[in-house]
Amino acid sequence: MKEMIDLKEFTPTEIIIYNYLIAHPNETLKSSIRQLAVVIHVSSASIIRCVKKMGYDSFYEFKFGLKQQKLILQTKKLSTNYDTEIIDLAGEFFNRPLLQQYSDELAAFKRLIANTNSVLFFGIGTSGVLAQYGARQFANFGVNSVYNSDPFYPLPQEVRHDTDQIAIMLSVSGETAEIVNRAISLKGEGFHIISITDNNYSTLAKVSEINFSYNVKPEVIKKTLNITTQAPVTFILELLARNIGQR
Asked: Taking all residues of the chain, what is their mean pLDDT, rounded to a whole number?
């Protein structure tokens, strides 16, 4: 619904129509303009003139705005019972022009993946779980993928001796010492380092050849538990996996 409607320009009949439409949103949404005209005892043309003075081009547009307002009110009511911050955070991320944001990184990734058949995923904690997920997604598209969540675990020989190796390193902060040190070590062994971090100015991002940063609000509870949403990370992993099919 449009706000700040000035009723000074409304005729007495139009004010009656306006009051009915506002007071009976459910009936309005379920009724046709002819049905409403019968209920309010006015003509269909009067209803059309009324909604146009309310700022809508048509009765259909008015009903659409009314429906959207109803959904907003329902959401506000539900939000009093639930923590909906994750919806806001995810919505803010997915409303960005993501293809433009990651266009350079995607192009560089596609050049690298075209020359390799094995990828190592690495992360610790929640990032370790997502590393496993990323490896599975890449495997679905025919790439030999392994994951590792232990910074002291030795690399499989088939990965160590591969050429043009790629390591995809996951870290929210990009500052976890074990991950940064492993990235530097892998880089020294000839790996191309791709990182997925919350920001692009972290140490891990700087030592990476390609960095995908998602820039959402960091969240830590109980001093040490990082609960920053990982919805963007899942999206980035799937975006990369699906682009393997474009090799």
From this structure: 87
